[in-house]
């Protein structure tokens, strides 16, 4: 079957890009719309392979330099413009604390390795959730395509010289290996299954294998009603995009790949079918031709609209369609087509590719950090206010030399051990009392402070600190990744029976984020699967674990809830608000439900005590200021910075000593 342009395939691109767009605007009825990327991958593999094989058939070889030059001319200019423009716009709408975290995102996007960059961030675990706020997140799929384009043509040329009969065999083997990788990582690490090139390669290869099959097909050996196949595949794609069928992202992607292959094949073999005629109409063909630009622009546009407007997903979707399509059309006419159709560039081989990649690298190391690290307040950002200056008239000065990237990444340290190596829990040894710090990411923020106290007060310090992990042995956080759940299980289940007696501490300090309000219903679960109301579950699990601790440890200190911003991003507020006092947080009236449980258990046992560290961390109560003694207090809405906690260690030590637990 000879290759010729099929306008219906451009129509498919329209379907793919607007499926992704609707998914990203948060519509429940488009919750599976991310499979638009799967369709893009199949189409890309199909089209690129068709072009390469046609050239090899025609000339007997493939000019790699010209191929790479065409790819660079096709993809890089528009991408570079979007990245630089996004950096510039975010100077207007985002605070410095947000922008500095985007520098590596933008640089990775320009160098087409951003999928691995985001995968590395996702493997950071509990604190990796903010990657979805990056305006460069969607470049992960473009990075996978570019990595494919880099290797695949050379592989195909090599196989052509070895023997063309090896081409389909090798591609099928690679496809099956990638499917196996997808299935493996889906069970082990869903992030790798989604972002990893190895786990996504099968979709591009499926398109490539289809292209090889159709290229060699003179006439179908079996008559297939391709028109109905196209209709059925289109319906299946819409159903998968809607999310009506409950499937995991991995399984949905595998099914979507099969559907996409069937759809492309049907449109190629039945170009007069109703679906082909629909996809070949003028509007979907034009929108498909500019779909690359639409995809590039849509995600930054969504984030900016959500930042400056308080409106519904429907309004965001309408505005995003209009803005991203308009920007894509302008880019197509003014930038992309002139470069792609340039007769001067057509005469060059490797030069456009080398210059393009070099220019991208220069932008990454010069323009991107210059824009995103500019120390200026945004002019279009939405309000990030805390309590405002209605509760405090004390002036708040933000130091001029704050390293906001360091602030937003100032997590502290984790540490735990297993029964096989209980000594690994101990991080400092002294002649004084043995203290065990037990908790989650809020305790993590205090680890450097406790390490310094251990040094200064001659304490022995052990840790059982795991981010996102409830300290109660019987409870789990279902929002955690599989790796995080396993870490939590290792650090909790059986630990109080097997490791705690070996450590034999004098004092246990329990510090954890309260997970007792309605937002945690269904998230906090019992490990045995039994269903209980959250309040009863928390009380019973706390009592059971505290019982095990009290049987061994003379004193247990339960740290009451620390005052946190909770409803706003303090770093964003400090870098956007003209008055830093607006970023203060009020001391709430009454404690959390967990505080009540703690007080109940304290009343039941002389070995259990509650302790309030807020006087140390919030010296200006009833309002907690965002900057104290030139130190930024909070890293995010639920964590103090480890550096601030370290600066308050003397005040914390006085409070801890006051409990009597340290003699």
Folded structure, characterized:
The chain has 30 helices and 14 strands. It is of the alpha/beta class and 663 residues long. Strand 11 (627-628) and strand 12 (631-632) form a beta hairpin.
Quick summary of this structure?
By secondary structure, the chain is an alpha/beta fold.
Please bin the fraction of helical residues.
55-70%
Strand fraction band?
Answer: 5-15%
Number of helices: 30
Could you tell me the mean pLDDT? 90
Largest sheet, spatial ordering of strands: 1-3-2-5-7-9
> How many distinct beta strands?
14
Which of globular, elongated, flat, extended, rod-shaped describes the shape? elongated
How far apart, in Å, are the first and last alpha carbons? 87 Å
Decide which structural class fits the backbone. Answer: alpha/beta
Radius of gyration: 29 Å
User: pLDDT under 50 segments (min length 5)?
Assistant: 124-129, 383-390
List the helices and strands and how they pair.
Elements: H1 7-24, H2 35-59, H3 64-93, H4 96-99, H5 103-110, H6 114-122, H7 139-162, H8 166-188, H9 190-195, H10 197-215, H11 226-242, H12 249-269, H13 274-279, H14 282-289, H15 291-308, H16 313-340, H17 343-346, H18 351-372, H19 404-408, E1 426-428, E2 434-439, H20 441-444, H21 447-457, E3 460-465, E4 475-477, H22 482-492, H23 495-498, H24 500-503, E5 507-511, E6 524-526, H25 534-550, E7 555-559, H26 570-576, E8 585-586, H27 593-604, E9 608-611, H28 614-617, E10 623-624, E11 627-628, E12 631-632, E13 634-636, E14 639-640, H29 642-647, H30 649-658
Parallel strand pairs: 2-3, 2-5, 5-7, 7-9
Antiparallel strand pairs: 1-3, 4-6, 8-10, 11-12, 13-14
Helix pairs in contact: 1-2, 1-14, 1-15, 2-7, 2-10, 2-12, 3-7, 3-15, 3-16, 3-18, 5-6, 5-18, 6-7, 7-10, 8-10, 10-12, 11-12, 15-16, 25-27
């Amino acid at each position: 079957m000879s290759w010729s342009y099929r306008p219906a395939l451009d129509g498919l691109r329209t379907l793919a890009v607007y499926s992704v767009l609707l998914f990203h605007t948060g519509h429940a009825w488009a919750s599976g719309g991310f499979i638009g990327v799967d369709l893009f991958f199949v189409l890309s593999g199909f089209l690129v392979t068709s072009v390469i094989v046609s050239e090899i058939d025609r000339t007997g070889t493939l000019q790699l330099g010209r191929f790479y030059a065409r790819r660079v001319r096709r993809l890089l200019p528009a991408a570079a413009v979007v990245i630089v423009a996004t950096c510039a716009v975010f100077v207007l709408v985002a605070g410095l604390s947000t922008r500095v975290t985007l520098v590596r995102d933008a640089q990775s996007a320009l160098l087409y390795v951003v999928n691995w960059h985001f995968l590395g961030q996702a493997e950071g675990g509990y604190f990796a959730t903010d990657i979805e706020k990056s305006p460069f997140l969607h470049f992960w799929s473009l990075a996978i395509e570019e990595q494919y384009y880099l290797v695949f043509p050379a592989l195909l040329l090599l196989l052509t010289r070895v023997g063309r009969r090896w081409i389909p065999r090798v591609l099928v083997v690679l496809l099956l290996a990638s499917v196996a990788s997808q299935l493996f990582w889906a069970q082990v690490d869903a992030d790798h299954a989604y972002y990893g090139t190895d786990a996504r390669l099968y979709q591009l290869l499926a398109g490539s294998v289809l292209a090889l099959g159709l290229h060699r097909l003179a006439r179908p050996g079996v008559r297939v009603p391709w028109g109905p196949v196209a209709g059925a595949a289109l319906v299946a794609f819409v159903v998968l995009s809607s999310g009506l069928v409950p499937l995991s992202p991995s399984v949905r992607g595998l099914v979507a790949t099969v559907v996409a292959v069937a759809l492309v094949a049907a449109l190629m073999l039945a170009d007069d079918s109703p679906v082909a005629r629909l996809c070949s109409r003028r509007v979907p063909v034009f929108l498909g031709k500019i779909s690359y630009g639409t995809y590039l622009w849509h995600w930054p546009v969504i984030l900016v609209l959500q930042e400056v407007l308080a409106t519904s997903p429907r309004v965001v979707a309408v505005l995003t369609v209009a803005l991203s399509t308009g920007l894509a059309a302008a880019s197509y006419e003014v930038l992309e087509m002139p470069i792609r159709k340039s007769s001067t560039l057509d005469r060059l081989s490797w030069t456009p590719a080398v210059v393009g990649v070099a220019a991208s690298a220069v932008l990454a190391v010069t323009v991107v950090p210059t824009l995103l690290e500019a120390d200026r307040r945004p002019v279009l950002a939405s309000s990030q206010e805390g309590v405002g200056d209605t509760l405090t008239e004390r002036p708040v000065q933000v130091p001029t030399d704050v390293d906001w990237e360091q602030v937003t990444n100032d997590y502290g340290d984790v540490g735990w051990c297993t029964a096989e190596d209980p000594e690994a829990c101990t991080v400092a040894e002294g002649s004084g009392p043995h203290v065990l710090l037990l908790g989650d990411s809020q305790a993590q923020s205090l680890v450097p402070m406790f390490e310094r106290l251990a040094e200064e007060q001659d304490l022995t310090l052990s840790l059982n600190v795991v981010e996102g992990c409830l300290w109660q042995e019987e409870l789990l956080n279902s929002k955690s990744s599989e790796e995080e759940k396993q870490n939590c299980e290792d650090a909790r289940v059986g630990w109080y029976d097997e490791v705690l007696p070996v450590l034999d501490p004098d004092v246990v300090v329990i510090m954890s984020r309260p997970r007792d309000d309605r937002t945690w219903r269904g998230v906090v679960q019992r490990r045995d699967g039994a269903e209980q109301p959250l309040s009863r579950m928390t009380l019973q699990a706390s009592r059971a674990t505290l019982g095990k601790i009290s049987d061994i440890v003379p004193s247990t200190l339960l740290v009451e809830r620390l005052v946190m911003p909770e409803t706003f991003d303090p770093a964003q507020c400090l870098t956007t608000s003209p008055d830093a006092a607006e970023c203060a947080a009020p001391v709430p009236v009454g404690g959390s439900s967990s505080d009540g449980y703690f007080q109940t258990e304290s009343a039941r046992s002389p070995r259990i005590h509650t302790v309030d560290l807020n006087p140390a961390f919030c010296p200006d109560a009833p309002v907690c200021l965002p900057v104290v003694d030139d130190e930024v207090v909070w890293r995010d809405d639920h964590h103090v910075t480890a550096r601030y906690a370290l600066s308050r260690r003397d005040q914390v030590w006085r409070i801890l000593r006051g409990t009597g637990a340290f003699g």
